Amino acid sequence: MEITSITTRAVFITGCDTGFGNLLAKTLDAKGMKVFAGCLTEQGAIDLRALTSSRLKTVVIDITVKETVIKALKFVQENLDENGLWGVVNNAGVMPTFAPVEWTSMEEFQHVFNVNFFGSVFVTQKFLPMLRKSRGRLVNVCSVTSHCAYPGITTYVTSKAALKMFTVCLRRELYNSGVTTHTIEPGGFNTNITDKNRIANMVKSAYKQASPELQTVYGGRICKYLLDGIKMAGNYVSTRPQMVADAMTHALLSRNPQQRYIVGNDANVYFRILSWIPDKAVDFILGWPAPYGQACEDLRP
User: Fold this and answer.
1) pLDDT of 103-113, one tens digit each?
2) Which residues in 223-237 are b (16+ Cβ under 10 Å) and which e?
């Protein structure tokens, strides 16, 4: 059952160019809510406005750049009515690397954390006073991997795990404030992030940039395992990303929202089973094969 007066409420969402944020912006706009959609690019903002009502307002924001976050905050404040801001959704996120840790630079780790964690923390800090006034809701998009250490996407997993723990800590800080916090933890869905060709190219690109020694260590059995797994997993990602937008909508508008939303068949079956069994068994299931071996053919020019 939904809360009342939906059409008088406003929400700010990051990462609305494509994917889950884009779907959520359209979903809430169709319900009559006032939506402030943060887009990374002007073209993304133009495309979204073309498909939504005049209620929806876009603002270009890069959450890793503090000045653009503050500019977005002022834009939202200037366009709010007396009802204030009901919800904030930290949806913007990236997964630009799929590679062994030894193939991943510190700059790549820092970039992923700047978007997936520090950017969301800064947005939260700046928008939280408005949520406190409205006794509203904060929704942070994490990942089912935030509680399952999935190797290869270490930058993504660790940044999302940090965001999840940040949300839980904040929930307890705000326990008696009237503001509630919620995590969305999707499994694999058919979006730009999970495109199997894109992910395979991440592995190949990281291989080319690795030292000859590390190419030898990981470029054989391990890379064959990774690239074969990417091909197989691409056949099993869900083709219903609207499920994630619906979970976000429930977190914002339900009278009895959940603290955590685990979304997707793989998240609710495969990853849930992994969370139940001993760590040694999970290590055996997810652990990579021994290093070295003949160089993987997919990595050859």
Assistant:
1) 999 999 999 99
2) bbebbeebeeebeeb
